[in-house]
Automatic annotation (TrEMBL):
The lineage of its organism: Bacteria, Bacillati, Actinomycetota, Actinomycetes, Streptosporangiales. Keywords: ATP-binding, Cell shape, Cell wall biogenesis/degradation, Cytoplasm, Ligase, Magnesium, Manganese, Metal-binding, Nucleotide-binding, Peptidoglycan synthesis. Mg(2+) 1 binds at D263, E276. This is D-alanine--D-alanine ligase. Cell wall formation. It is an enzyme of class 6 (ligase). One of its GO terms (molecular function) is ATP binding. The gene is ddl. Residues 102-309 form the ATP-grasp domain. Its main location: cytoplasm. The keyword RNA-binding does not apply.
Amino acid sequence: MELGHVIVLAGGLSYEREVSLRSGRRVAEALRSLDIPVELRDADATLLDSLASDPPDAVFPVLHGAAGEDGSIRDVLELLQVPYVGARPDACRVAWDKPSAKAVVRRAGISTPASVALPKEIFHDLGAASVLARIIDRLGLPLSVKPTRGGSALGASVVREAAELSAAMVGCFAYGDAALVERYVEGTEVAVSVIDREGGPVALPPVEILAPGGLYDYTARYDAGDTEFVTPARLSPEAAARVAETAVTAHRALGLRDISRTDLIVDAAGEVQFLEVNVAPGMTETSLLPRAVSVAGLELGAVCRDLILRRLA
């Protein structure tokens, strides 16, 4: 099938707008390298009229943050009956909410660190000092703190001393109204991208992440040179098989389609721990999925094209 009009949707108004624009440009360039006509569009007030008046063959969303990953934009695309790459709205809503995603994958037999999810109001109503003390009593130290919804590690931090937890919560609440506090697991951090092929979802080579200070935060993700990546990750064959199986299981359990990226920790005992899943993986020059695509011997443009064609089959 020949593609005549593809829209790559990027930008939006989330904190991750600039990253999304970089991802969108990368996907558009990859598709254009295959002579596919591509229009790079922002999610703005002109979008709906444009889609209705000149419907594309398909839309490839690379919107990061709330609207791009919570299912809302995909709901709109379904209202317009425009084919698009990526998970359906209901699956996005579950994956976007980290505590919900953890509960789903746990039921599928995947290990995930012990955690508690609390809204900002609970600290005001019950007293912040008392709540924080109970968190440490229950989960111990160190801890990972991050918004229950959000991407690019905005508002995320690692707490190694009890005195640091209050500031970490304040930083987290700057980016969301609820916090996920989970036991921090030391080990090898890997990201495993999954793409749907004819035979079903396939895990790409795992990417090992060596971030400065041990925290793969926003700066470490998008400033070239700050973080070291090893692809494929330096894992035993058994551990590599386990992380691939975990990512594919999470992809299926959460009802995702086409593309996802699962973040995992392989602890000292070799056990794989699920951290979170991303339904709109970054596509920038420092992003993990394009690295995995390259090491797998694939071309990013061909992968994106094939995902579009799956939606039109």
